[in-house]
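Input chain follows. Return structure tokens only.
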Amino acid sequence: MSAVGTKLMGAVGPDFGAVAGSGELARVIGALLTITLVVAVGALVVCAATWALTAATGHWHTATRARTGVWVALGATALAGAALAWTNYLLGVGASL
């Protein structure tokens, strides 16, 4: 590959300067991720406590719904955490192209 081709390939990457207010966008995404994680952990605590109490008292229908809530909250927490890792990975790959 020629020197010009190597230079052009090294210049490929995300251009955050092209987006107006890119710094504000990063703050908004961080705030949304924080809110998502706080709500998911809160739902996890409430559902786990409900599951434990209703299973101990024999309310199987409510315990089943609370167990489903625990799994949904765990899934939401995992997806929110994975979204940040996936975004950072893609930005790293894009910058290295």
